[in-house]
Recover the amino acids of this structure.
């Protein structure tokens, strides 16, 4: 039955969610925030602006808008602060803080409006409406953050009761708690559903930065590293090597392009096996590869590349015998300059007879 299939799918999603590390979860929720925040802020902006028009029923109930005008207009000032904060801050924590600050400001402003009206009969309806806003903000929040915000919501109701003295406080609480549980449960399901989207995005991103022939990274990853300057804050030493298959054109001419492709695949797989998991192996183009060694000084990188060069030269499992030339350089803090240094070192290796490692 379909219901059992859905339950099984939900269980598998939950198991997948539980396998995520702290860093994985942080990236997951940042992705979820980036995906939904535009929808959330549009709803909050439109809802806040429209809430000002409640001065019309205020007038119908009180015969004047003066008592409630200040709390109704106050939310517009808070909305302005909200929009300014979204312009300057982009982390999920800052965005979520701004979202909930606006929501709870609306709650406080409406509590003051209720106090100014002196009419307490509409309080329960307002608190029910707030569940809809909590449902919207929950799209960018974690479950524990939604629960925490609901607890604050209930505290706000109880504190305001000492001032306003709601006639139907038990009814308000009884109605608010089930609505809150429904919102929490719905976002628990939504989180697991979004996990499918997140995993698919990861696969697509990996496909975009993976060379289909050699199964190592391609130049798209290199462009991301350069664009984001991803190595600039690394405290450990970094070395970069550029490798080139010697006389690759002749290899293709003598043995055919299929053998040439097998040789490139062999190089990619061997580099992946003989480098560390946090190193980057990138096909730079044609028969050239770049290796970014993290937590590795220039001497260690040179020794590792020399050992790799010897392993290639003596390899008995390669499609055809071949050799490589290697250029190595220390990462200077300027990625483009370092790549230029590495390329110069590789050029020297090829000009000096190939099958060698040259260090700049």
């Amino acid at each position: 039955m379909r219901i059992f299939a859905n339950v099984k799918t939900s269980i598998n999603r939950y198991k997948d969610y539980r396998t995520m590390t702290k860093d994985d979860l942080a990236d997951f929720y940042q992705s979820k925030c980036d995906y939904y925040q535009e929808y959330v802020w549009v709803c909050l902006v439109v809802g806040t602006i429209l809430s000002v028009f409640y001065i019309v029923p205020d007038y119908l109930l009180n015969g004047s808008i003066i008592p409630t005008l200040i709390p109704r207009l106050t939310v517009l000032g808070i909305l302005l602060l909200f929009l300014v904060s979204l312009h300057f801050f982009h982390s999920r924590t800052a965005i979520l803080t701004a979202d909930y600050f606006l929501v709870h400001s609306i709650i406080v402003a409406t509590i003051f409006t209720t106090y100014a009206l002196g009419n307490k009969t509409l309080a329960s309806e307002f608190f029910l409406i707030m569940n809809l806003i909590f449902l919207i903000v929950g799209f960018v929040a974690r479950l524990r953050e939604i629960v925490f915000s609901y607890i604050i919501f209930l505290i706000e109701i109880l504190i305001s009761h000492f001032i306003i003295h709601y006639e139907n406080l038990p009814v308000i609480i009884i109605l608010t708690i089930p609505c809150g549980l429904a919102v929490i449960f719905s976002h628990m399901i939504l989180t697991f559903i979004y996990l499918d989207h997140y995993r698919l995005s990861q696969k697509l991103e990996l496909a975009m930065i993976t060379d289909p022939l050699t199964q190592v990274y391609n130049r798209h990853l290199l462009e991301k590293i350069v664009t984001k300057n991803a190595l600039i804050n690394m405290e450990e030493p970094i070395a970069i090597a550029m490798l080139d298959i010697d006389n690759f054109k002749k290899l293709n001419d003598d043995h055919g392009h299929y053998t040439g492709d097998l040789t490139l695949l062999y190089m990619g797989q061997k580099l992946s096996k003989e480098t560390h998991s946090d190193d980057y192996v990138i096909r730079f183009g044609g028969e050239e590869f770049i290796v970014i060694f993290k937590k590795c000084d220039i001497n260690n990188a040179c020794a590792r590349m020399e050992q790799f060069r010897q392993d290639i030269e003596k390899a008995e499992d390669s499609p055809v015998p071949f050799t490589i030339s290697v250029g190595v350089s220390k990462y200077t803090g300027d990625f483009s300059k370092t790549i230029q240094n590495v390329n110069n070192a590789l050029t020297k290796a090829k000009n000096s007879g190939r099958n060698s490692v040259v260090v700049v």
In short: Residues 169-208 form the longest helix (40 residues). The CA atoms of residues 115 and 163 lie 8 Å apart. The chain has a mean pLDDT of 87.
